[in-house]
Amino acid sequence: MSRSSASLLASDRRKEVRVKDWIQLTKPRILQLNLVAAFGGYWLASRWMIDWSLLLWTLLGTALTMASSCVVNNIWDWKLDQKMSRTKDRPLATGRLKLRGALLYALALGIAGEAVLFGQVNALCGWLGLLGMLVYIVVYTMWLKRSSTWSTSIGGVSGAMPPVIGYCASTNEIDAGALLLFALLFLWQPAHFWSLAIRRVEEYRAAGFPLLPVRKGVRRTKLQMIPYVVLLLPTVVLIFTYGYAGIIFLIVSLLTGFIWCWHTIRGGAALDNDKWARMNFLLSVNYLMVVFLILILDTSGRPF
User: Fold this and answer.
1) Is residue 4 part of a domain?
2) Is 47 among the domain residues?
């Protein structure tokens, strides 16, 4: 291989790495999970009468606003990310990307996302997107994440916005269906995140994050998970009762919910916290995916 060919190959590899770094800033795994929720929210409200153009604009606007918030989170936390093995290789923590470029990137994503929601979807979804960004960036990232054990619970407001945005894209109003979807995601998040936090408790302690397992201990965290997971059960019952989904949704959601509840309640007797937390985390992810998949497939055809 000639020197020029080797140089071009090396340049291409650097560009590929750089592109991956920009994508990583948006936390694509979080985006994927929440886009499933936004899709489910739209499908629930539309009752299989899909405006595909509107759905695509909704998903795009939601993805862009969420991505913007995640980039700002990376910017704000870059120094603390250096202290944790899970985050020390992030692009800003290693210096592969610069803060100024990341900030411009976040602004561009946020402006584009809000332009899509306000211009192509509806004003209600635009305001919901702004609310989600405000809570995630200001309330969660800049304030509570560094000062309070309530960061996870209150920060859950932003994580519960995607299905509501999807729902309101179709209805253009907040009704019982929107509130139940909000409750579903809001209640799901604390136990999901605390499962991860228990596994990484010493890293979070070293980095200075005052999460619940850091401040109150693992046992207290396990106990505090229980009401959130238990309250998911009446939430899915209400989704069925109000006619938003069918009996298959009810049966599957309750079955998976009881499994997750049983495992969460048994956390107090678990001898291996890491093993228990890993399984609880996996159960939480699979629970959400299954519930929204069945919600999409078993949406009731009855009118609102």
Assistant:
1) no
2) yes
Q: What is the DSSP letter of 266?
A: G
Could you tell me if residue 304 is inside a domain? no
Which tens digit of pLDDT belongs to each residue from 265-288?
999 899 899 999 999 999 999 999
- Please list the alpha-helical segments (H only) found in the chain: 3-25, 28-46, 52-76, 78-81, 91-94, 99-116, 123-134, 151-159, 161-171, 176-199, 201-207, 212-215, 218-241, 247-265, 273-297
Q: What does the pLDDT read at residue 2?
A: 55
| 191: number of Cβ within 10 Å | 28
Helix (H, G, I), strand (E, B), or coil: what is residue 163?
helix
CATH of the domain at 28: 1.10.357.140
- Single out the residue of 108, 117, 74, 70 nearest to residue 93, CA to CA: 74
> CA separation (Å) from 53 to 33, 66, 104, 236?
21, 20, 29, 29
Quick: pLDDT tens for 109-128: 999 999 999 999 999 999 99
Rg (CA), the chain: 20
C-alpha to C-alpha distance for 90 and 189, rounded to whole angstroms: 23
Task: Find, among 251, 248, 259, the residue nearest to 286 by Cα.
Answer: 259
Rounded Cα distance, 284 and 263, in Å: 11
Distance CA 21, CA 90 (A): 8
What's the pTM? 0.90
Split into its structural domains, the chain has a count of: 1
Q: What is the pLDDT of residues 233-270, one digit of tens each?
A: 999 999 999 999 999 999 999 999 999 999 999 998 99
**For residues 11-45, b (16+ Cβ closer than 10 Å) or e, as one string?**
eeeeeeeeeebeebbbbeeebebbbbbbbbbbbbb
Does residue 55 lie in a domain region? yes
Q: Which residues are CB-neighbours of 48 under 8 A, at least 6 positions away? A: 299, 301
Residues facing 245 on adjacent strands: 299
